[in-house]
Amino acid sequence: MNIAIIGYGKMGKEIEKIALERGHAVSLKISSKNAHDLTFDNLKNVDVAIEFTNPDLAISNINVCIESNTPIVVGTTGWYDNFASVRYNIIENNGTLLYATNCSIGVNLFFKLNKQLAKMMNKHNDYNVTMEETHHTQKLDAPSGTAITLAEGIINNLDAKDLWVKGDAHAQNQLSVIAHRIENVPGTHQINYTSAIDDIEIKHTAHNRKGFAIGAVIAAEYIANKKGIFTMEDVLFE
């Protein structure tokens, strides 16, 4: 499989390493230095693109791939306000997109665990739930896309919360999401259920970028010959 890496920084280089280990070729590498090389012509021989850039660039990168009939895995977060227009473009062009707030296999298992725990806690009103997330200082969006996915998983399964807020909550129905930015932290997410009697905590800690990269390449393998819009839940739990 020929892969294009859009966003050839630290994450892109880790994706390249994993892709080569899994027997694929990387035929196109796009960074800020050669962004003009992301063209229909250069994507002709690409089977799948993997995109890890930033929210300001993601929409344009996605649309170029969709319009050139190149399936794309998008690990960038913070662009979802424009999802409707992207979805329309995919339908119009019979395209292929897999988007993920986090491509890590472990994190997606954590998403499932988070939903299940919220269901179990729904009848236990003595507990209040809060969340914390920590990432490196280069991460632009806060809370992280992963934290938002976790928050939505709680809200959809816990009657006591129907809105997440960044920072401290000011009402009982609000889920507090505290975001920290610290040097050299790949990503940590913790859910806390606290009562006067005890605490229940679940936590996912990424040690490096490898988990994100492996998940992205597995996602690329999954969508290579498919049409439509997918998530990591399709990859792992179909």
Give the count of structural domains.
Answer: 2
Order of strands in the sheet with most strands: 2-1-3-4-5-11
Q: Cα-atom Rg, whole angstroms?
A: 19 Å
Report the end-to-end length measured between terminal Cα atoms: 22 Å
Poorly predicted runs: none
Q: Structural class, please?
A: alpha/beta
Mean pLDDT: 95
Assign the CATH class of the largest domain.
Answer: Alpha Beta
- Main β-sheet, in a few words? 6 strands, parallel
Going by CATH, the homologous superfamily of the largest domain would be NAD(P)-binding Rossmann-like Domain
Label the overall shape.
elongated
Task: Note down, in words, how this protein is organized.
A six-stranded parallel β-sheet has the order 2-1-3-4-5-11, with helices on both faces. A five-stranded mixed β-sheet has the order 7-8-6-9-10, covered by helices on one side. Helix 1 (10-21) packs across helix 6 (210-223), helix 2 packs parallel to helix 3 (83-93) and helix 4 (105-121) runs parallel beside helix 5 (145-155). It folds into two domains: 2-103 and 210-237, Rossmann fold (3-Layer(aba) Sandwich), CATH 3.40.50; 105-206, Dihydrodipicolinate Reductase, domain 2 (2-Layer Sandwich), CATH 3.30.360. It is 35% helix and 26% strand. Helix 1 links the parallel strand 1 and strand 2 (25-30). With 238 residues, it is of the alpha/beta class. It is elongated, with a radius of gyration of 19 Å. It is built from seven helices and eleven strands. The longest helix is centred in the middle third of the chain and has 17 residues, at 105-121.
